[in-house]
Amino acid sequence: MKAHLMFPDRDFDADRELPSNAQDLTTDLELDILFDAMAGGDDLLRNSARAAVLGSVADPTTINYRQDILADCLRYPQEARGLYRLIVESIDGEKEARWWGYESGRYPTSILSGASKIVDYYVGELRKLRDRARELSSKLTSNGFADLFSMLAEELSDDYLSELQSHLKTLEFRHGVLMSADLTEGGKGTGYVIRKPNEDSRPWLERIFAKKAESYTYTVPDRDEAGAKALSELRDRGINPVANALAQSADHVRSFYAMLRNELAFYVGCLNLQSRLTEIGEPICLPSVSESEADRRSFEELYDVCLALTANGKVVGNDINADRKRLVLITGANHGGKSTFLRSIGISQLMMQCGMFVGAREYDASVCAALFTHFKRQEDAEMESGKFDEELKRMSEIVDNLSPGALVLFNESFAATNEREGSEIARQVVQALAENGVSVYFVTHQY
Predict the structure, then answer these.
(1) What kind and span of H or E run contains 13?
(2) Helix 338-353 to helix 43-54 angle, to the nearest 10 degrees?
(3) pLDDT, tens only, 400-430
(4) Tens of pLDDT along 120-130?
(5) How far apart are CA 381 and CA 51, in angstroms?
């Protein structure tokens, strides 16, 4: 079973390695404020939000897929939150079932017992999840939710779940273990296989008084420890394949729940952020997304979401139409909002490319292959290098990871040297980037 609420064809890995510039993006765009607002104090929500935003995708199809799911959640926030709570409660409830879990088991018998308890627990939870999906199918109608609900309905029928519980009951081996084996030269056993006992359909009274079938038996003497150990080893050899298969099944169900929780966590984080922004009266919109080649970037009332969250009130937005413009230079007086505007460009680009809404009245933009920031830094406290040398080093690292279609945000870069030298370096860098298909937004005081 697959959740597929973040990608239409693959899983979302909230713990995957982030891009090499993830820390620079977090620092320069003040993204911790965004993550905290989405998390609402929940570390799991924060981790999913961070992984999604910093691991944003450049595929408009995937972005639109997430936007449709998010639109469902925005229309029915209580239902979406309720579904997430159901998953979290199921995972938390497993801890009690896992008390005898197979993770700590050393022998096939203990592994089988622990895995059986976990699978039996999740049978009930899967039934609750399937029933809840049926109730929500008329409201959460995006392709992502529709596919998830359809999968749950098809794979978790009552007949299937009842049969599964019947198998688990059989694996309790209340009447002993029936198995077969082959004998090799020397009388050693091989090919141990657990067998399912034939069901006796005779009436119970007939079974009681019927003549017992002939069989060969051997009873281990009470004090024969070696014999008891040998018998236990024979039992474990037969049980081992079954125990491993059931343990894998338990892992599969648990991983499905964990994946569904992590993917729903992203949308719950979006709901938390939407609630905060609505409280302070800021607009949001689901952006119109274009391919990188379209080179579109226009918006109305775009604002710095992190600034609005920090100020806990409305902030001034900006309008611009920069379609087909590869280079945008931003200048003006000190404390006039240049850096804030630049951050709003970066934050909105990341939010759009992870499938979120953005902080604007209207927003139409192309995806970028990657986003980089080159903001001014404080002097190296350990004096290992000068400030200008540090700027050039960071620029070199960005260039090493650049590709056509990327977007680079400069904030007063190359200002650590004199005006003439800094301007010439900036001109050469920007010209090279623009000529190679990289879009540049540059805040500067240089003339």
Answers:
(1) none
(2) 100
(3) 999 999 999 999 888 878 888 989 999 999 9
(4) 888 889 999 99
(5) 31
